[in-house]
């Protein structure tokens, strides 16, 4: 058995002894260091691709003989890439406050790069600066854009996303949808801190991707069918809306001037401390729809919200819209009424980017 395999076996055996204490941190730490050993050997070895391929084949065979499954050539290559990506990750991004949970000595250090195995300071660093599971990182290392990659890492950590939810948010272009109206400094802030809800515009995603509703892509379903599908998937709908939402009701009635009105969906957002009213339109957005929502918002502001709560937000979720209609109907200083298109199927990332160009 070659020396490289011996080093990795020692590393894995040490990790397995500590796995009961923190299995995810141990896996991330271990695989990061497996990648480190492979990279170090690669750099010392011959400069030919055949050398690297043969190295991975030999090490994979040795580790599989000792540990069984989990150490295929593909997985070893993934560990190598994991180390390469995160050891070279921007210190400006990695010093984001979301990861600053360790002591100042550890927090301000570079990524651990000592050749020693299982140093306590290295372990503490990686627990804090690589805080999610190996399965999450296996997905994240496929994202080439470092800013986008860290955004999804922060969001996964903050919101305790499963890997399935992480994949869905990536596939629905969450980063692009949030970044489309932001300048460079605000996009960097997204990467460092995730989605921060400070004003009404921060809540708005356009388009909303409602693939989880299971509706067929057709023109014949009604607003009631759309509303019912949303209620049946209310948790997923609130995840798609964003952070801090609490559900307040469906077809919430209020009366004014001896007439009854019904708001399709009522939410409260704890970050903005305000009501969020949603009206569903299965067709093209009309100026009358904006006027109706303005009336709903005015009523809630004047008769429903408490003195310590902020102004109500209204969102019209529609199949299609023209920005010119929205702009000419609403006042120039509008900060309360928004319109967002929806898709009932999951577009590709490329289709989402193309769609955002015209919104």
- Binned, the helix content reads 40-55%
Order of strands across the widest beta sheet?
1-6-5-4-3-2
User: What percent strand?
Assistant: 5-15%
Structural category is alpha/beta
Helix and strand sequence? HHHHHHHHHHHHEHHEEEHEHEH
Mean pLDDT: 82
Largest sheet geometry: 6 strands, mixed
Number of strands: 6
What is the alpha-carbon Rg in Å?
A: 25 Å
Total helical elements:
17
Distance between the termini: 59 Å
Low-confidence stretches: 102-118
Rough shape? elongated
Can you give a write-up of this model?
The chain is an alpha/beta fold and 359 residues long. It has helices spanning 3-17, 23-44, 49-67, 73-87, 91-94, 104-107, 120-129, 134-140, 146-159, 163-171, 174-179, 184-193, 223-232, 234-241, 287-304, 323-329, 349-357, and strands at residues 208-209, 245-256, 259-269, 274-284, 313-320, 337-343. It is 52% helix and 14% strand. Helix 1 runs antiparallel to helix 2, helix 1 (3-17) packs across helix 3 (49-67) and helix 2 packs across helix 7 (120-129). It is elongated.
Keywords:
elongated; alpha/beta; 6 strands; 6-stranded mixed β-sheet; 359 residues
Would you kindly provide a brief summary of this structure?
The chain has helices spanning 3-17, 23-44, 49-67, 73-87, 91-94, 104-107, 120-129, 134-140, 146-159, 163-171, 174-179, 184-193, 223-232, 234-241, 287-304, 323-329, 349-357, and strands at residues 208-209, 245-256, 259-269, 274-284, 313-320, 337-343.
Write the layout of secondary structure elements.
Elements: H1 3-17, H2 23-44, H3 49-67, H4 73-87, H5 91-94, H6 104-107, H7 120-129, H8 134-140, H9 146-159, H10 163-171, H11 174-179, H12 184-193, E1 208-209, H13 223-232, H14 234-241, E2 245-256, E3 259-269, E4 274-284, H15 287-304, E5 313-320, H16 323-329, E6 337-343, H17 349-357
Parallel strand pairs: 1-6, 4-5, 5-6
Antiparallel strand pairs: 2-3, 3-4
Helix pairs in contact: 1-2, 1-3, 2-4, 2-7, 9-12
